[in-house]
Amino acid sequence: MPLPTKSTDRPGLVSAVMAFATVIFLLSPLVAIVPVSFTGERYLSMPNGNWSLRHYEALVTNPVWLNSIKLSLGIAVTSAVIATVLAVLFGLGLWYVRHWLVTAIAAIVFLPMAMPPVVSAIILYFFETRMVDIAPWVAFDSVGGVILAHVVVAVPFSLVTFMVSLNRIDNRIDMAARGLGASLWQSIFWVVLPNAKFGIASAAFFAFILSWEEISVTLFVTSFNVVTLPRQMWNGLRDNVDPAIAAISVVLISLTVMAVLSRDLWCWRRNLRNRAS
Amino acid sequence: MVWPSRVYWILLAPLPLFLAVTYVMPFLMVAGWSVTDPQPGFAQYGRVLGDPTVLGVLLRTMRIGIVATAVSVTLGYAVAYNWVFGPLWRQRLIEYCVLIPFWISVLIRAFGWLILLRSNGLVNEGLADLGLIDEPLALVRNEFGTIIGMVHFLIPFAVFPIASALRQIDVRILQAASGLGAGRMRIFWQVTLPMAMTGVVGAAIIVFVFALGFFITPAILGGGRSVMVAEFIYLQLFQTVNWGLAAAMSMVLLIFISVLGLGLRKAMRIDKLVGR
Q: pTM of the full predicted structure?
């Protein structure tokens, strides 16, 4: 149906130009890293005809980078497992017990998510420097200490992710299982948790990413002994900028792009299959 | 309500106990530091408000926070509006271009800006090649670079709440306004913006709260010349070793952010009252 006046209910030129300019602004720093990562020089520069893969090679041959990548992977996996176990236990507790006191406790659990990261950082710095003599395995500048700090920071996010999927489960399936004679634990392991397995996986994935990228709290609880990948990048950015940072950034950006695209591809395929059936 | 039976405490106890030891108790002790280190009293808080250097850090943080919030929310609104009401291909494009930077680490993003903005970076060399400038512009290692990097980080956090507010608007209202002859500016000021106001205010508060706590971006792109609260706390702990001042500064930041957080809850609740 042709409208009598000029249709103005859709975005016009001004807002489209602003939006596209913003999109270019959002992408430009990520794109700018790519050519720099292929420079043949030892310092940060555009390749200018001198293209090379030496900085990618450095990631797998230079022990400084290789060790920090391995360390970060280990820390991220461990803290993701611990954060997920803690979040799943507490999430199940919240799901079963609806009592005002439990809700009040939940407010404490979300504290690390609500605080500005720098406040969490000074709190964990305080805790871990006190632990140097009492419990050196979780003390300042130890691997255990970094894992502990990452668990504290990530656990509220894991809990939220898990609760979202748990709250979608009809709690009558638990009642049915219990009515048929299952114990609480049998019901949890055989009925409730299998129904929340995507929630558990997302909670673990979220915690893994948070730990893998974590830098602000890590800076406060480490000095020289424990150098995670972000910490290594931070050190490199502060002194002479090492082009290997560009190479590792390109690798991480590519992984992110692939993850976002493959998630969409997966949803798209599932939609097609649902439509077909 | 019945007191939960003992078996449930096996589920409920571990996480709060863990956080009580590693987070809540140390938090109270840090709060204690701010009034006991080096000697008991409120001297450190006096310094926060009385010492021109420390006060300067607070005022700079506020200034940068306000500018970064204003820019992020404005651009975020344009992006969200096109995301929700634009043609389908534009919606997809915007979705990817907002989500991908959102998942990328703050370090990599600051590094990208360093490559673009430093004195022999891409922007300066491009402008010099075009003959527009003779001397490289100081785009980084100052407040300008800090604000650019922060806006880049904050835009997705502005887009998401504004987009979810815009999604609740019935398209037929816009069509009606348009059919009655309203221009785009008039629709923006009198229809979409008022209807999306909660989202915009919520986005502004969230973005401002994040901006006040920024650490990594100002530390890399500010180059030590535009120290904000978080970096100041880091320097007090690790360089000046003035724990009391670091703790007092954290408490001031925390109190300020809590007040803003209460404001956010109030804004949301008032909207619910008006909406019903």
A: 0.90
- Note whether A237 and B219 are within 8 A (CB): no
In angstroms, rounded to a whole number, what is the distance separating the alpha carbons of residues B155 and B184?
Answer: 23
Q: Which of A105-109, A250-254, B272-276 has the lowest mean pLDDT?
A: B272-276
B-chain residues near A209 (CB < 8 A): 103
- Condensed to tens digits (0 to 9), the pLDDT of residues B194-210 reads 999 989 999 999 999 99
Contact A125, B47 (CB under 8 A): no
User: For chain B, what are the domain ranges?
Assistant: 46-275
| Among candidate residues A80, A114, A166, the one with its CA nearest the CA of residue B11 | A166
Q: Which CATH architecture has domain A54-276?
A: Orthogonal Bundle (1.10)
Output DSSP code: residue A9. S
User: Chain A within 8 Å of B184 (Cβ-Cβ)?
Assistant: yes
Q: pLDDT digit string (tens) for B247-260?
A: 999 999 999 998 88
Residue B31: CB partners within 8 Å, gap ≥ 6?
B247, B251
* Cα distance between residue A154 and residue A86, in whole Å: 11
CA dihedral A122, B150, B257, B52 (to 10 degrees): 80
Is there a contact between B15 and A87 if contact means CB atoms under 8 Å apart? yes
Complex ipTM:
0.89
Q: Where are the domains of chain A?
A: 54-276
Residue B178: list chain A partners with CB under 8 A: 3, 5, 7-9
Residues 6 or more apart in contact with residue B190 via CB below 8 angstroms: B177, B182
SS3 A19: helix
Q: Which CATH number fits domain B46-275: 1.10.10.10, 1.10.3720.10, 3.90.79.10, 3.30.1330.30?
A: 1.10.3720.10
Cβ neighbours of A68 in B, within 8 Å:
none
- Tens of pLDDT, residue by residue over B176-188, are 898 888 888 888 9
A194, amino acid identity: P
CB B223 within 8 A of CB B141: yes
How much is the pLDDT for B15?
A: 95
